[in-house]
Automatic annotation (TrEMBL):
InterPro entries: NA-bd_OB-fold (IPR012340), Ribosomal_uS12 (IPR006032), Ribosomal_uS12_bac (IPR005679)
Source organism (scientific name): Papilio xuthus (Asian swallowtail butterfly)
Family: Belongs to the universal ribosomal protein uS12 family.
Compartments where found: Mitochondrion
Keyword entries, A-Z: Mitochondrion, Ribonucleoprotein, Ribosomal protein, Transit peptide
Annotated GO MF terms: structural constituent of ribosome
A Pfam family reported for this protein in Swiss-Prot or TrEMBL: Ribosom_S12_S23
Protein's UniProt name: Small ribosomal subunit protein uS12m
Gene3D superfamilies in the record: Nucleic acid-binding proteins
Amino acid sequence: MASLAQMHRTGPHKKNRKSRNPLNGNPFAKGVVLKTLIRKPKKPNSANRKCVLTRLSNGKEMIAYVPGIGHNLQEHNIVLVRVGRVKDCPGVKLKCVRGKFDLSHVVKQKQ
C-alpha cells in the first residue's frame, strides 16, 4: 500500500477513456456518396431510414443518415457529414448536413 506522501505526490488516478467520436475528434468531414441505402430501424420502430454509404476524406467508408423528407443524392455526389448517431439504426453514427455541397435544403411541403 502506498504511503500518504506517495499518494499526494502522484495525484489521483485518472482513467483515459477512448473517444467514441467516429471522425477522430473532427466535427465535420467531407465525403463522396458510394451508394444510397434504405435502413430499417430496430425493434419497436418501423420506417425506412434514408442513408448513404460514403467514403470520407480520412479514408473511412461509413454510413450516414440523410435527415429531412426527400433528398437528391446519387452516386459520386459530395456531402458534408457531422457526428450524430441515429439511435434506432445500428451502425449509423453520422448525419449529412443539408444545404452544403451537393445535398440540397429540405423542400417546403405544400399544404
